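HOLO CASE FILE
Compound: zinc ion
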Amino acid sequence: MSAILFISLTLLTFIVMEGITWLTHRFVMHGFLWYLHEDHHKKGPGFFEKNDAFFLIFAIPSWLCIMLGLQNQVYWVAAIGAGIALYGFAYFVVHEVIIHQRFKFFSRSNNTYIRTIRWAHKMHHKHLDKQEGESFGMLLVAKKYWDKVRADKNRSEEQTPISI
Ligand SMILES: [Zn+2]
Ligand SMILES: [Zn+2]
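Model generated. Tokens follow.
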């Protein structure tokens, strides 16, 4: 398998993972595994949440694909495993660090995309219960959240007096 094909398959898996995450979040985490996800919506004391178990749930297939793919030289399986791992890493950076700020990096970003994913996820957290959620994805967010953030940004720019 060529490196280009391997990388393409890894990136394709990354994109597909956004869809899988949406589906998992919408139907599994807000479904029969709500008991693991609930403390992410109703935050208790302590650093760790039961919700962190989902890292393990996604890490296992990724690790298995990489290990078995490499051992048996079935590289497309390893590429899928790498894509899942890459998405897991992005999820950690975006969801835990940028959005929830469990570690204090990038906490004051004014970037439109960062503000939009934060806002969209905030709207997800507005719902404290299992039912009737919105915005289950992470990296791809609906147009209405973009519109809201752009409108806010425009308004605040208009209000700032121009000093020369
Ligand atoms: Zn949720
Ligand atoms: Zn969250």
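CASE NOTES: Residues 127 and 133 are 6 Å apart (CA to CA). The helical segments are 3-32, 34-41, 53-71, 75-99, 112-125, 143-159.
CLOSED: yes
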